[in-house]
Design a protein that fits this description.
Radius of gyration: 23 Å
CATH topology of the largest domain: D-Maltodextrin-Binding Protein, domain 2
Number of strands: 12
Helix content: 40-55%
CATH class of the largest domain: Alpha Beta
Distance between the termini: 36 Å
Largest sheet: 5 strands, mixed
């Protein structure tokens, strides 16, 4: 399986049309068609369902697309790393992060480093903890910003000097607007809007493992969408503070949860990882800024 052919396959999958994909990659359509047929023969399965005007992926094709995206991302990242080995003042850094106020602290450190090394480019991948850690484990990311429920023994890490507060977001004209804070017991009787990672991690710890009485009416991946559902009156969105606007002029309000622990944030990277010079410089800056608690390495 050649990298070049995987690029042909991925571009064709993205375009849904082999002719357009060939034009974008500056190869002839017959050449691309022949290469993709040979790829199907090599794998022993059909990857495309072809029609007169378009193609769509088979189940096997969808699996290969997922794998090809990771493979090509890793190839491109590796090539870029080798190019930057001799250039301490430039290079790409790949970081996975949830939506959190901690990202602002990280961004300030990157900005400070870019003033000294303006050719540094920071590439951010946003996703939930599982997605971010999977990409970090595969080598597709250099660093990740995570909450404390990740198994930190698997990684080197630096504790960040910040904690995010959990709370509830709901319509400004709601009957609970005058309420200054919520407790876990308050949530039991409310229709809740929450993220999948909250269901998997915080919710069992907060409520115990008997969750049959918890009324989850909607879930979200991005806090903005959770806030939109809360604004529509669908329910009460449980999320971290300061991820959406709830201040003056907003139609929604935030009230803290008073009896739950705050979310501690960490910067993690794989053990025994070899970094480019620019990534090493970033680690030094991170340690300098978060030196109140020691980094853990093994």
């Amino acid at each position: 399986m050649e990298i070049r052919v995987l690029r042909y396959f991925l571009e064709t999958a993205r375009e849904g049309n082999m002719t357009r994909a060939a034009e974008r990659l500056f190869v002839s359509q017959p050449t691309m068609s022949k290469q993709l047929k040979e790829l199907e023969k090599e794998l022993g399965t059909k990857l495309f369902i072809r029609s007169n005007y378009s193609i769509r992926l088979t189940e096997a094709g969808m699996l290969l697309r997922e794998r090809a995206e990771d493979i090509l991302s890793l190839v491109d990242k590796t090539e870029a790393e080798f190019k930057s080995l001799e250039e301490i003042n430039s290079g790409d850094i790949y970081v996975g992060a949830p939506e959190s106020e901690a990202m602002g602290l990280f961004a300030d450190i990157v900005h400070s480093l870019q003033r000294k090394y303006p050719k540094l480019r920071c590439n951010i991948y946003s996703g939930n903890m599982q997605d971010v850690c999977e990409k970090l484990d595969k080598g597709l990311l250099d660093f990740a910003i995570v909450m404390n429920y990740v198994d930190l023994t698997k990684y080197n890490y630096i504790p960040m000097s910040t904690q995010d507060s959990w709370g509830v977001i709901f319509k400004k004209d709601d009957a609970f607007t005058g309420k200054k804070s919520f407790s876990i017991s308050d949530l039991r009787d409310l229709p809740l809007i929450c993220s999948k990672q909250w269901v998997d991690h915080e919710l069992p710890d907060w409520f115990g493992y008997d969750l049959k009485d918890v009324n989850i009416v909607a879930t979200y991946n991005l806090p903005y969408n959770g806030a939109i559902m809360a604004k529509a009156g669908i329910g009460y969105a449980v999320m971290l503070d300061k991820l959406v606007h709830t201040g003056e002029g907003s139609d929604i309000v935030f009230r803290p949860l008073e009896d739950v622990p705050k979310a501690e944030m960490y910067i993690i990277w794989r053990k025994f990882q070899t970094f480019t010079p620019i990534a090493d410089l970033l680690i030094k800056e991170l340690r300098k800024n978060f030196d109140s608690r020691p980094a853990r390495e093994s």
